[in-house]
Amino acid sequence: MGEFVARLFYPAARRGDVVEDLFGFLVPDPYRWLEDGDDTSVRDWAAAQDRLFHTNRAGWCDKQSWASSVDQMSSFGVSEPPLVRGSVMFLAEQLRGDEQLRLLVVDAEGNRRVLVDPVEIDPSGHTGLYAWWPSRDGERVAVQMEVAEQPGSDILVLDVRTGEVVDGPLPRARNTSLAWLPGGDAFYYVSRVPDEEPAPGDMRLHRRVRLHRIGSPWQADTVVFGGDDAPDHYYGLTVSADGRYLAVTATVGPASDNDVHVAELIDPEAPDFVKIVDGRTLGARVLPRFLADGDLLLVTDYQAPCGRVCTAHRRDSDPAAWRTLVAEDPQAPLDECLVLDDPSLPRPLLLVARTRHGASTLTLHDLADGRLLTALPLPGAGVVSSLRTNIPHGRHAWFSYCDATTPPTVYRYDAASGKTEQEAGATTAGHTPEIRSHSVRYEAGDGTEITLFLFTPAEDHQGPRPTLLYGYGSFGMPMRPWFFPLAAAWVGAGGTYAVACVRGGGEEGQHWHDAGRGPHKHRAVSDFNDAATWLIDTGRTTRDQLAIFGQSAGGLLVTAAATQRPDLYAAVIAEAPLCDMVRYEHFGLGCTWTDEFGTASESEQLQWLLAYSPYHNVASGASYPAFLFTGAVTDLQTGEAHVTKMCAALQHATSSDRPILMRREPDTAHAAFPASKERALIVDILAFAGKYTGLSPEETTTRLHETAAESH
């Protein structure tokens, strides 16, 4: 399995004597000093870790083969459905070799031209196209760029015909929502208060909803919603087609419930809001959109954990008065829906996307009474996402489809003819391997059945395979059988890629999320270890062939799983993870995530956190698997201290000769990597996992090239 690094080569990290008394619990924090990334000793230690990583990486002999495989599996082209406004179509495209997405416009005659190319703005490739919001007539578009390492980014308004900037920049629009008023001369948007107002180091959001009129300075934008009493709120904005009504959803951090406020826009500068949904009282999520008559279509999990579609009067604050249009299906959580109401159609329609056992379904309903009209055929048992239609009135529905072997492909459904046709799509540079995908159910320790997606090579093979197990298990985010170049490359090399749909995600609806958050977060971790145990016990892999991988909150999942059961795993890859769950609220946006994890400022909740916090459960002398921590040097979401503190703690504790490594990425953020850096990271993850599980792509890469040559 190659040479491993002995413990004595780890950079020296002093163990401090910080011990906090929290509600009578003595909580040691020996690496508190590593939280100060500007300190010279921290920078020197991190630089030594960089050298250690690069020395180790030099010994990963399959790196070039993995790079070739990832290049073959990476997809490019158009992967998202278009936004269609009036006669103009807005498309995002990323061609092979591009570092970032570019924004195209297509006119009524089918002429395509580039409207925004981020690399022209920033040749380094570190500025990405984050979001774009065309006006209803397609004459203007508000564009937001994301710049690595910056906590907020500007909004620019472009003239679609000329490409010229007609307004902006509007600053500090992080995680914003934007809704144009008819006519294209004004919009509502969300931005943080001016930088000088929050206290230094205050990472809370402090957002406000503002009205901006094209041509006026942003300082004159009227605040129409939000205040000092809501420092951690996210806002979503929706304006009715006729511009008479505005709906604002308000969510505390990533909480699973939200408020809904509706106003009639008699004076757009001073909307008079009526609170029609109190999320805390209902304990539910309610997403509104306006129907043609000004009433509301509500997508909600209130009294329906897997989601239902209702209609309500815009001032109806009593959920008992809501009328169910499409009822809950307890076996198929609701993903999204779309109204098709073009006057040329015989009747207004509702398109509904659900997920049944990991595979998407699309059904068409009568908007008047919700009755099922037909099910739309799909290319396979894959994932449908991003339903979109023409604005102001929809006749076509665009959606993206992908599965384990199919990169995202855009389809268009014509509600007048009833036909669905492929319109655009992403392709891969080479031939994707034949992948056999199926889902199984395994039993968690408490008897709960949990779905596990398995992706294996098509050829028959008896006996265990090197396996890469992935999970997330937070914020109600469901795992799906997406197309993922990393997974395709791993399976193409002869391995098994597995995805565990642990509690805390949204695979089975809201109750599945609730069963794995707050006081129950430990269940997500034990569910994941139970998935690993099942893979081993059924002979699909062995402990020496099993690696685990998670990103962000999934990095927390795999790191916690490995500190609880280090004996189960050969290798662990944690990308931008949370590790110190006692102090996570002090880093990045952690203070907004207490609804998901709990807070260390309350005695009972501190005990939830201490029970699984990876940093606090590192055991001296334990034989830990190989660890690779990856992350941005400047991570404004989770904060870099999680990685540095956890790495130091494991290096000090482990009795194993398998290395504990840290791969730091300068000049990037939590997301929005340039494409080349994203591919380089995937290659390093695969090379690391392959080295410590015994998977080599050498023979498979040769075979794939031969197959490709024969087919030409």
UniProtKB/TrEMBL annotation:
* Swiss-Prot/TrEMBL GO biological process terms: proteolysis
Which EC class heads this enzyme's classification? hydrolase
- PROSITE patterns registered for this protein in UniProt: PRO_ENDOPEP_SER (PS00708)
State the source organism's domain of life.
Answer: Bacteria
User: What positions does the domain Peptidase S9 prolyl oligopeptidase catalytic occupy?
Assistant: 487-694
Q: Which UniProt keywords apply?
A: Hydrolase, Protease, Serine protease
Q: Which InterPro entries match?
A: AB_hydrolase_fold, Pept_S9_AS, Pept_S9A_N, Peptidase_S9_cat, Peptidase_S9A, Prolyl_oligopep/macrocyclase
Q: Which residues form the Peptidase S9A N-terminal domain?
A: 11-421
Q: Which family does it belong to?
A: Belongs to the peptidase S9A family.
Q: What is this protein called?
A: prolyl oligopeptidase
